[in-house]
Each structure stands twice: as C-alpha cells, then as structure tokens.
Input
Amino acid sequence: MKNTLRSVFHSPRFVVGFVIFMAILLTTLIYPFFVTRDPLQGLGKGFLAPGTYVSVYDTNTAQTYRVELPEANANRMESIVPMEDRVTIIEFLTAKGVDVSHLTTDNSDVAVLVSQWKENYDEADVKKSKYPGFTTQAKRKALARLDKRLSGNQSLAAMNVTLGDGEDAATTKVADSDYVKVSEVANAITLPLGTDNFGRDTLTELVKATGVSLLIGLIAGTVATLLGLIVGLLAGYVGGLLDDILMFIANLFTVIPGFVLLILIYYSIGQSARGVTTCALVIGFTSWVWTARSVRSQVISLRNRDHVNLSKLSGHSLVRIVVTDILPYIASYVVMAFILQVSSGILAEAQLSLLGLGPKTTEVPTLGLMMNWAKLFGAYTSSNAWWAYFPVILVIALISFSLNLMNTGLDQVFNPALRD
Amino acid sequence: MTKGLKKYLKKKIFWFIVTFIAAIILNFILPRMMPGDPVNAIVGKSISPGATAEQVQEQIAFYKHQFGLDKSLLGQFGDFVKNAAKGTFGVSYNQYPRTVSDIIGSGIWWTIALQLPAILVGWILGNLLGAVAAYKRGIWDKAFMPASLFLSAIPAFGAAVILLVVFAVNLKIAPVNGAYDPGMIPSFTPKFIASVIAHYQLPFWSIVIISIGGQAVGMRSMSIYELNADYVKYARFLGIKDSKIVRYVFRNAMLPQVTGLAMSIGSMVGGALVAETIFSYPGLGMAMLNAIGSSDYPVISAITLIITVMVLLASFLLDIIYAFIDPRVKAAQFE
Output
C-alpha cells in the first residue's frame, strides 16, 4: 500500500492533477471563512463589470489628500472625451466643411474641439443635409449619442459639490488634486469577477457553486461506481442466468442513452423533488453501465485463476472470495473509474442545468445553474458579460482536466504497458 | 460458418430482439410518467373565455378521443406500436394537428447534416493526431498530450459558448443562431445555401473541437499499448520494415476507436442537444427539448425511439462485425 502510494505520487501527471484538484477543493473550503456574505445575496441590479466600486456619497465626506499625478489631467481628458470621440468630432466637422486643419486630437485641443462641436452640431440639420460619411441611419444615431455624452457636465475646471440639503447645504470646492484613500471610504467593494444578472457577487457565487458541484460529482460518482461494481462482480463471478439478466439491464441503459433517460426520469420525479441530492442520485443511477461492463470483463478473466479455485475448494463463501481474491485485483481499476465518474457527474449536472433541467433550487448555486442563468439573461449575447460565464467554463474544464490527469497518471502506474 | 459463430449470432439476435421490445415499452411508459396533463393544457389554450363547464368537458373529451387517451393504457400502447410501425407516430399534442412524423422530418435532416460530418471530421483528425503523437513521441508528444487532455476537458457547451461569443458576438463574422437567415424561405437558391453554410460553421466546429481531444487521447494510449506489445518487438527482431509494422499496430489500435465512432454516430441525436440549444439549431435535439417542456408525449416517445433504434442497431452491427474481424471475440465464442 505504502509502495503503491509512493509510486503514484512519483507520477508527474498524477501530481499535477492532484495539486490542481486540491487547490480548487481547498479554495471552496477556505474562501467562506474570508467572505462570509451569503453567496446568493444580490448586491445590485444586473451585470456589473469586474472592478472596485467606491461609494460616491462616502467619497465626498472622506478625508481628502493632496496628490499631484503628472498625467492626471491627460487621464481625465481621456476619460471624458476618449480618443474615439475626438476622431469622430474631427470627421464630422470636416464633413460639414468647418476648417479644422489647425486642430489635433491632443489633450490641449480637446476644449476647442468640444466647443466647435457644440456650435456646429444640430440633429435635424444632420438628418436633412446628409453630410458625406454620415448618410446611414446608424452613423447618425452614433452622432446623436456622442452629442448626448458631450452635453453632460463637461466643465473641465474645478467642480463644486453640494453636501446636505435645505438650509444645512454647504458647497465645497473640489480641486483637481484632491484624493481620497480607498480604505478610508466607508463603503467600497472589490468585485474581482463583477456581478451576475441578479447582482450577485460572481466570485463568491462561483466558489459556492464549485463546492456544490463537487458534492454532486462525489455523490453521483459514488452511486455509479458502487452500482457498477456490484453489478459487474455479480454478473462476472456468478455468471449464467444472472449474468444474462444483469447484462440485459445494462444493455437497456445503453440503448436508451443515459442523457435521455436522465431527462425522462428527471421530469417524471416532478419539479419540487428536484433538489441537488436528487439530481446527483439520478445522474449516478444512469451512469453505472460502463463501469459494470469493465468490472465484469475483468472478473471473468479472474474467476478461473488458481487462487480463486483454491478458495472455492476450501469452501469459502462467495462474499469472502470476492472481497479477498477478486477485489484486490480490480481495486486500481475501480479507483480510476471512480475518478472518471466524479468528473462526468459534474459535467452531466452542468449540461442538464444548461438545458433548464437542473436542480430546482433557489438556495444554492451550481456550476450548471450559473451557466443557465448566464444563458437566460443574455450574458453571451446582449450583455456581453464574460465574467458571468467564462470563469464557470474554466472551473469546469479545470476540474475535469485535473481528474483526467490523475486518471492517466494512475493508468501509467498500474498499467506497465502504457509506461513511457 | 462455424457452429460457435452460429450460436454466438443466435444469442446476439435473441438479445437484440428482447432489448428492442423492452426499449419500446420503456419509451412508451417513461414520458407518460411525467407530471402535467397535456389535454388540459391544450384545452386551456384553445377554449374561449367564458365557456361553460359543459363546453370544457366536451372539449376535453374531444381531444382525449382525438389522441386516443380515452382508451386503456394497453390500448394506447397498441396505438403507439401501430403508429410507430406505420412511421407516422400519431399526432403531436402541442402542435395539434401537426403529425409527429412531420415534426421529426423537419428536424432530423438538420441534425444529421450537422452531426455526421462533424463526428467524422473530429474522429479522423483526432485519431491522426493521436497516432502521430504515439509514433513520434518526443517534444511533440509532451506538448500535445496535456493540450489534448485539456481540450477534451472543456465541456461541449463551453466550447460552443466560447465560439459563439468570439466569432458571432464580438468579431461578428458568423451569425448568432438558427440554421439560416430567418427572413429566407428554404429553397435551392445560391443565396439560401450561402446562408445555411454561414450558419453551419460555429455549431460544426464546436462539435469537431471537442471530439478531437477525446479521440486523440484514446488513440494515443491505444497506439502506445500496441507499440509496446510483444509482437512488435518480435517483428522488429525479424527485420520487418518499420512502415509495415506501423500498419499492423494502427490497425489493432483502431478497433476500440471504431467502436467509439459507431456508438457516437448511433447516439448523435442525443449528442446534438447541447450544440443545438446554444445555437438554436432547428434539429431533433431542439424538437425534443420543446416537446419535454410541453409534455408532448408522442413527440418525446418517437424521438427517444429513434435514438434507441439507432444506438441498438449500431451496437448490434458492431457485435456482428467484431465476430468476423476480431480474433479475440472469435476465441471468446468457444468459451
């Protein structure tokens, strides 16, 4: 046993897979100690892009410091009138025939560009005159949007901020060199992966979902491996009519593909019963077949070995022969099958949930449910919120990658013919 | 034909028939265990507001009779078998009075046209890559193996979503969903065919990419196993040319891969579900998903029956072919 473990941990593939898997598992266990928020708590409305969010209200009441960044002004200009808009403004003014040859897209010219724009742009006029390059509806709409952006509060001078209301109102002047320290602002939150469509912190949700999905994989894998092992041992060792019947059932499970069977069973048990555990059990119940087949064929090749015959002659019971004379020979295979079953259980849940057939629960997220929500609320298409689905795909891929690596590593250790 | 082979075939055919009958029964029963009464749903949709209880009863009785639901379960099963044998599969509940065969007929060609080439291309490319990796070894293999393991670890929907986002949403060089431009009427005009081809790319490649990884990993390990076999060493001692040995090796390594190919062709309708839902491709997978959502038993039963028959046929044919070509199976017949 000790030797086996040592040789297993000498296989680089197994070690890499093991490290990745443990890193994911430990993250799901440790993370909740640091972020104690409910993973399904909504923090806002709709998709928020990843980043640090600082309360505007609290920023104004926080202590200010004087910081003089050399590029502060340039950055500010860039954020108010981005390069793209400056190009559009010049393009429009040229099309209208205004002489802009002395203007550039540099920061020093932005103020002039904006004032020229305000003087010359008129929505009705653009629609009527059809300036070259702005003949299409889409182009004209883009101009109207640009005008809306520019007509906001665009004064580049110092700003006045009014605090409080009514008689207590006091106006403070905010200089362009005033800064606040983020850690001193009463309310600021960093959302490394933004929020999903319900405004939930995606990272916290993802960690919780990974934990739940691993549990689903574990339950499904255990059920499938145990069922497969028992059926395979009985069919292979006992043989005869029992073998025929068991293999007939296994065939049935093959010809009605697991996925279809899963969907049908899943729908039959009704919406209310479709919790996380039921989902895991159903997946396990439909995926034991190939384990059973492989165990059976290995047991058939073992059952006429000398040591098994000797046990039989000694009058040992069926259970004892199976446990002491057959199981040790297929133990390594069973472990590998279990690893693959866990991985395919997690995948099966994700696919089912994506199709809207996953666990019906509002208490916990799963990786599949997160994919389903991303799909339903247009994260791929209209919102283009990559943070709501890409990390989920990555986690699923990493989990099955690590489990597959562990599996091939074990295969090389136990199967000398595959060794390099 | 030897006696052993005859016995083997007889046994296989017997179990084929028994499994087939059991599968038909299961296909009939399982969808009918689903909750929700389809007739009530239809009547609820079609009846005019303010109808009396009598009218409602009348409507329910009318539809029950139309669908044959007023018969006993055994009678319904008889109808199911009769309709299946005729190939019509009865009338859809949800899209009444459309026949099930019409719904299937409009979906199946999209599924086959999408899946069959994708499965074949993925299979050929994956096996080539796996065989080359096993034969060349070295750096090529060291980089290739983890890469294809990772590729095969990406879930099917993951690849589909990434392709969709990159090529359709961001680069806008492919359409987002459907099988052709929604404004067009299917016809054999160049414009329509071009639209079909454009819509075909993303679902096609999403299936190919996923299958390459899995096939390559399998082929590589089978080939290494065979390359290390005693017969290869013996053949080398005899001085047989390397190119000839390689041919034997890959022919042996191919056997399990052929099984995989046959099974994935057999189960392609079920396998189409993910790609079809992500890209809203109008194949059988979508038809089945819609039918499940609306408790449309005849459609569900018919599609699962098609899937079952395809898988059953694929595995039956494999058993028969193996009995002739694989010496290991041949030997097993005499056990």
The longest strand of chain A covers residues 159-163.
